[in-house]
């Protein structure tokens, strides 16, 4: 039972990092990306390859993963962020579809459908981290650092600029804000931090394949942010916990047909999203339940 | 509606205009609009408009709906690129420049639909206008930061928004939103303000405060160009009036001359 709970907590921490980094662009910059799983995947694959071929040291593999995700996101952001929000959603969806194909077909990098196996345990200053509780501590520290970074950023003039862009791009432009640079930086930072989650996931599972980085992962992370509460610190954490715990909770409801738990879970997600959008559009943790952020 | 020309004498304000005395023709030209045109497909929104905005006065753009007044603002601020012509700010062409670059040169604007940063507080709305650079930390350290906050407080005092400091723009009453729009522009160091119907829908007290604020700012050296439909406001604050109709500039001159022209009045009231 302890191992099961530890496993759940590690996964919640990893997805909480993803949700927190997606919230940074959705909640504060108003940029809706459907490609967050791509940067999760790039982080995972890069960290795995670096660990297998260069060094499993955390401070080598994770920065490499962040750099790879940052460069890829820059390639998406530079052209896509010049257009209005809804077009960015479409562009990010395109990237997600393209990336899944690449992850499946680029066998030398990703191992294709079979994925990458035998990823070594991550090392911290030469000490391997392989016990679940050690991994949980490492994941929680990463989560805390990422929360601290995003929280600090949104309280600076940079954060105010992000929120200004979210509320009115034309007014932000008229106030002298270079919105392309600000939005690009926010997407690059969010993607680089999402890659940390990918690296942790790869090291924890010691195996990754394309299944973990598909569109449904991007949608699930977006659901975590929206259900938990956009533009809040606690919202994405709560959203990640709820959505990760839900499958386990449903298995305890013995009157439900256990073979249909996956479908029931999708129905519950959908229903929860619809009800929240009607009654509490800011999410569970929103301080402005009438629709505020 | 009458087509009778409206004169300054008919208004309650004994001293119309911004308080500027003298000939506006003698004022320095801050912004030059030369033969500006804009087509939207087959629609000629602006046609060969040439106009000078002169320093230290209030110029009002008047004309019926669809005259091209807001389009002219959009072209000055770079939100729309003109099909032809030039806009020069203190001699430098603004054509092809991004709106944020034009804003940083000292041209600030408001929008008819306000476009406030709705989920930000009143204080944040004003403060963010003083931070065009958006660096993680603004230059100048604690003393500059203290000065910025002091200026924000001063602006909120003047616009009557102090009690709403921590209220989101979304939750303000209509007149308060109008004043927040003005407060945001007051926070910039811009020399030219382009105000798109800033006083529409204001109650008499708010309207008087608006006039007072505008006159004080012009006295401090701000140049203002206003789009306005309300003739009472036009008469009360204009030092100069430019009359647009169907994308063409029909007249540009002193208020007395423009407002006493029966032909312009007929166009304005839709009686031609």
Which key phrases capture this entry?
heterodimer, A: 293 residues, mainly alpha, two-stranded antiparallel ribbon, two-stranded antiparallel sheet, disordered C terminus, B: 272 residues, alpha/beta, Rossmann fold, 2 domains, 4-stranded antiparallel sheet, 9 helices, 33% helix, globular, disordered N terminus
What is the compact description of this entry?
The complex is a heterodimer of chains A (293) and B (272). Chain A is mainly alpha-helical and 293 residues long.
Describe the structure.
The complex is a heterodimer of chains A (293) and B (272). Chain A is mostly helical. Helices cover 72% and strands 3% of the residues of chain A. In chain A, helix 7 (157-167) packs across helix 9 (179-205). The longest helix of chain A is centred in the middle third of the chain and has 27 residues, at 179-205. With 272 residues, chain B is of the alpha/beta class. Chain B starts with 28 loop residues before the first strand and ends with a helix. The model of chain B is unreliable at 1-14 (pLDDT under 50). Classes of the chains: A mainly alpha (293), B alpha/beta (272). Chain A binds chain B through residues 153, 156-158, 160-161, 163-164, 166-168, 170-179, 181-182, 231, 288, 292-293, and chain B through 77, 79, 98-100, 103-104, 108-109, 111, 115-120, 124, 127-129, 131-138, 168, 170, 184, 188.
**What gross morphology of chain B would you assign?**
globular
Measured by residues with Cβ under 8 Å of the partner chain's Cβ, the largest interface is:
A-B, 27 and 32 residues
What structural class results from the helix and strand content of chain B? alpha/beta
- DSSP helix fraction of chain A: over 70%
Low-confidence runs of chain B (pLDDT<50, min 5 residues)? 1-14
Compute the number of structural domains of chain A.
Answer: 1
């Amino acid at each position: 039972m302890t191992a099961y709970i530890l496993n759940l907590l590690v996964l919640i921490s990893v997805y909480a990092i993803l949700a927190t980094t997606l919230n940074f662009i959705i909640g504060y910059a108003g940029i809706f990306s459907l490609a967050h799983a791509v940067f999760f995947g790039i982080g995972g694959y890069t960290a795995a390859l670096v660990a297998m071929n260069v060094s499993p040291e955390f401070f080598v593999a994770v920065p490499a993963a962040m750099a790879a995700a940052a460069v890829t996101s820059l390639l998406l952001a530079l052209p896509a962020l010049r257009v209005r929000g809804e077009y960015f959603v479409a562009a990010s969806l395109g990237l997600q579809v393209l990336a899944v194909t690449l992850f499946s077909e680029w066998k030398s990098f990703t191992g294709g459908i079979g994925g990458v196996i035998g990823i070594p345990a991550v090392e911290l200053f030469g000490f391997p981290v392989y016990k679940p509780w050690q991994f949980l501590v490492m994941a929680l520290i990463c989560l805390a650092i990422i929360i601290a970074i995003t929280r600090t950023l949104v309280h600076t003039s940079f954060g105010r600029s992000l929120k200004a862009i979210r509320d009115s791009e034309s007014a932000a432009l008229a106030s002298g804000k270079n919105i392309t640079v600000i939005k690009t930086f926010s997407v690059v930072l969010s993607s680089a931090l999402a890659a940390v989650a990918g690296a942790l996931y790869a090291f924890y599972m010691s195996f990754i394949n394309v299944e973990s980085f598909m569109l449904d992962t991007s949608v699930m992370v977006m659901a975590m942010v929206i259900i938990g509460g956009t533009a809040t610190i606690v919202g994405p954490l709560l959203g990640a916990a709820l959505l990760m715990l839900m499958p386990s909770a449903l298995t305890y409801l013995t009157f439900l047909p256990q073979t249909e738990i996956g479908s029931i879970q999708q129905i519950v997600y959908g229903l929860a999203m619809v009800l929240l959008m009607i009654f509490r559009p800011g999410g569970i943790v929103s301080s402005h339940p009438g629709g505020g952020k | 509606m009458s087509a009778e020309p409206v004169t300054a004498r008919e208004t309650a304000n004994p001293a119309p205009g911004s308080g500027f005395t003298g000939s506006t023709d003698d004022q320095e030209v801050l912004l030059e609009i030369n033969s500006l045109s804009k087509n939207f497909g087959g629609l000629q929104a602006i046609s060969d408009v040439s106009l000078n905005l002169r320093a230290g006065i209030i110029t009002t753009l008047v004309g019926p709906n669809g005259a091209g007044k807001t389009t002219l603002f959009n072209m000055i601020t770079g939100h729309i690129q003109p099909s032809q012509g030039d806009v020069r700010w203190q001699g430098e062409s603004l054509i092809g420049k991004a709106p944020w670059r034009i804003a940083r040169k000292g041209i600030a604007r408001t929008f008819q639909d306000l476009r406030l940063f709705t989920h930000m507080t009143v204080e944040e709305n004003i403060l963010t206008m003083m931070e065009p650079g958006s660096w993680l930390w603004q230059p100048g350290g604690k003393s500059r930061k203290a000065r910025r906050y002091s200026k924000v407080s001063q602006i909120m005092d003047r616009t009557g928004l102090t009690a709403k400091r921590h209220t989101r723009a979304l939750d303000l009453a209509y007149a308060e939103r109008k004043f927040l729009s003005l407060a945001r522009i007051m926070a910039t160091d811009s020399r030219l303000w382009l105000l798109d119907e800033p006083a529409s829908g204001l109650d008499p007290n708010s309207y008087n405060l608006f006039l007072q604020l505008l006159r004080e700012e012009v006295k401090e050296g701000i140049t203002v160009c206003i789009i306005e439909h309300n003739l009472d406001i036009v008469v009360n604050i204009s030092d100069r009036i430019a009359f647009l109709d169907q994308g063409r500039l029909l007249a540009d001159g002193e208020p007395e001359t423009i407002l006493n022209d029966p032909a312009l009045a007929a166009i304005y009231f839709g009686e031609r």
